[in-house]
């Protein structure tokens, strides 16, 4: 690892104009490319105290051995040069947008004398038109089988084409009129190209002319008593309609647009892109990338959207793919006008980038954002389900924490409350890198007082004490069914310790608390008090995913792309989810009991109906008498009692 101070340029030598900079390693390989409106301001951020840097940035500046820059005239030129250098050098620390899975496309080889259509996966090349992506290869084959009834273009490989050209007879598709058989000169190259252009136009969304032409030909054939031809055209129309039905209408005005939404956590971000042509969803693509370093989550999303638009549509222009006139995004790019200008130059026409606020486009954006969230969840589940990946994560944890053995059992606790009220805690258990939900625990915190940061520390101490009070006994005792059946700790019943009524079967090798150094030190004090010295204790801070060890002044930084960090994050997120769920249950229960209790004639069922109807007790209190009477099961008398009770409390 290099010391950034050894190659830091003097501040006065760095210009203040817009530009693009490159960090190179000791072998002169470019490891990072970036742009800046003010080069001096941006580059100075890389040479501050390493502890203040984002983990990925810290690793980059320590890998690099030199930095150089090029001054440009405007932000637009900086964007263009940055994209060019990223394509040229493929720097390891720049975000790379790779699909979250390999999608199949319908490809048409426009660079051949007799173009052919086929299913394709992989890197896209010039001279080939791509349509999709589709969810399954069979969907492309079925679609192509329907469309070749109307557009009988070639679909065979070059070897099959040459063989039948030598034989002088077409293949089966040629005999059943699903191929125009250019191999035996049934059509000329220009005639076949017209068929190809018709198919491309239809796939691009121009379906109305094809449907109108087929309908007209069918009626003409029927009027001339050529019923066989009319029946064939009727079947062709049915095939066309079947293809069109599979593409759901999302914009009634026939808009052409790309819709892009992002969703991320502390480490990664998911990008979903829907291609909308003629108001219909024509394709979908997904990407999962490492989250870029930035001061806030919003800034990170804006920077990611900027980079994605430049790289994705820059690549699209190189392979002669379509760039739509309208691009809808969930977060506006960091340099919106400049990106619009560059994309307009690539498209050779205007491009508008905007965040939809209402109507159909806003609804579709919410759908795409939901897909982005689900894609990130599936990405994590796929990593979790891989035995090799889980084994690597546990091995990395063992090495990073200097443990004697891999932590096969890991427990993590998290605190949930709102301004110190309804404080609850969760304890989740992972064995062999997988959640063991039968061992999950939920606690009501009763000893912690106050609110804010100090309350979290006290709560962590309490739940740690309650968890490890019998730790030394658990290591040797045989599990039985009575251990947690009515057990009391310090004359206090433990709340919902387990769903099975059994105690912990094994002690953990690793215990994680959600928080930084104060929380870890509080848990360590409990460990010292109870004489626990065989469990590794760490804390995981949310913002930069720092690992804190008891008594240490500096955190342990795991590589951002390490499987160990992904596993820790997954465990912490699961603890957070479990705590939030329990907290909402307790808060809802308290609200229902405390504010609606004591109303004559109002039982549990009707309380639930009220809360369900209005959404919360607060909204119920704001409702009028007639609104309460509209709830199922509430007459004028009972509604009046509820109304009087709530408003007498308010006064």
UniProtKB/TrEMBL annotation:
SMART domains: GIYc (SM00465), HhH1 (SM00278). Belongs to the UvrC family. One of its GO terms (molecular function) is excinuclease ABC activity. It is found in: Cytoplasm. Gene3D superfamilies: 5' to 3' exonuclease, C-terminal subdomain, GIY-YIG endonuclease, UVR domain, UvrC, RNAse H endonuclease domain. It holds the Pfam family GIY-YIG. The lineage of its organism: Bacteria, Bacillati, Actinomycetota, Actinomycetes, Mycobacteriales. This is UvrABC system protein C. The gene is uvrC. Keywords: Cytoplasm, DNA damage, DNA excision, DNA repair, Excision nuclease, SOS response.
């Amino acid at each position: 690892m290099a010391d950034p101070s050894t190659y830091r340029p003097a501040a006065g030598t760095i210009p203040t104009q817009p530009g693009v900079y490159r960090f190179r390693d000791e072998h002169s390989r470019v490891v990072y490319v970036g742009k800046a409106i003010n080069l001096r301001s941006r580059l100075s951020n890389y040479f501050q105290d390493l502890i203040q840097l984002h983990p990925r940035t810290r690793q980059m500046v320590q890998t690099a051995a030199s930095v150089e820059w090029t001054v440009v005239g405007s932000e637009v030129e900086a964007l263009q040069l940055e994209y060019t250098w990223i394509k040229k050098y493929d720097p390891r620390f720049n975000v790379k947008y790779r699909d979250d899975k390999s999608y199949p496309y319908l490809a048409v080889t426009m660079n051949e004398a007799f173009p052919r259509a086929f299913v394709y996966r992989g890197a896209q090349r010039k001279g080939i038109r791509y349509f999709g992506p589709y969810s399954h290869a069979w969907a492309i084959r079925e679609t192509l089988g329907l469309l070749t009834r109307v557009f009988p273009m070639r679909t065979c490989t070059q070897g099959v084409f040459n063989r039948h050209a030598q034989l002088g007879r077409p293949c089966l598709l040629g005999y059943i009129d699903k191929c125009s058989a250019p191999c035996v000169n049934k059509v000329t190259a220009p005639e076949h190209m017209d068929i190809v252009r018709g198919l491309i136009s239809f796939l691009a969304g121009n379906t109305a002319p094809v449907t109108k032409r087929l309908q007209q030909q069918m009626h003409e054939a029927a009027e001339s008593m050529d019923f066989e031809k009319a029946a064939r055209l009727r079947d062709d129309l049915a095939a066309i309609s079947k293809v069109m039905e599979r593409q759901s209408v999302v914009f009634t005005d026939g808009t052409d647009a790309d819709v892009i939404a992002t969703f991320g956590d502390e480490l990664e971000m998911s990008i979903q892109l829907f291609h909308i042509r003629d108001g219909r969803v024509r394709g979908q693509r997904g990407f999962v990338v490492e989250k870029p370093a930035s001061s806030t989550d919003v800034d990170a999303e804006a920077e990611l959207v900027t980079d994605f638009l430049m790289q994705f549509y820059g690549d699209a222009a190189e392979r002669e793919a379509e760039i739509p006139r309208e691009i809808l995004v969930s977060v506006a790019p960091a340099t919106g006008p400049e990106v619009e200008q560059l994309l307009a130059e690539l498209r050779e026409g205007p491009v508008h980038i905007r965040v939809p606020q209402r109507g159909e486009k806003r609804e579709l954006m919410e759908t795409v954002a939901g897909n982005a969230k689900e894609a990130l969840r599936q990405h994590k589940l796929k990593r979790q389900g891989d035995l090799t990946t889980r084994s690597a994560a546990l091995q990395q944890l063992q090495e990073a924490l200097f443990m004697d053995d891999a932590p096969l059992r890991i427990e993590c606790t998290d605190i949930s409350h709102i301004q110190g009220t309804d404080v609850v805690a969760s304890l989740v258990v992972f064995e062999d890198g997988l959640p063991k939900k039968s061992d999950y625990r939920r606690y009501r915190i009763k000893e912690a007082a106050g609110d804010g940061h100090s309350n979290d520390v006290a709560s962590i101490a309490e739940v740690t004490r309650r968890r490890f009070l019998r730790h030394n006994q658990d290591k040797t005792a045989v599990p039985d069914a009575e251990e947690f059946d009515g057990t009391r700790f310090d004359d206090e019943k433990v709340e919902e310790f387990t769903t099975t009524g059994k105690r912990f079967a094994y002690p953990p090798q690793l215990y994680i608390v959600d928080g930084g150094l104060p929380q870890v030190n509080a848990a360590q004090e409990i460990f010292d008090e109870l004489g626990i010295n065989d469990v590794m204790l760490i804390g995981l801070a949310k913002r930069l995913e720092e690992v804190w060890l008891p008594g240490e002044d500096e955190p342990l930084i795991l590589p951002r792309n390490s499987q160990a960090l992904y596993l820790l994050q997954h465990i912490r997120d699961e603890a957070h989810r479990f705590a939030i769920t329990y907290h909402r249950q307790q808060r809802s229960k308290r609200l229902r009991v405390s504010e609606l209790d004591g109303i004559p004639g109002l039982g549990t069922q009707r309380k639930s109906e009220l809360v369900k109807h209005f959404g919360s007790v607060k909204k119920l209190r704001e409702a009028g008498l007639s609104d309460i009477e509209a709830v199922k099961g509430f007459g004028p008398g009972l509604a009046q009692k509820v109304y009087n009770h709530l408003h007498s409390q308010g006064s």
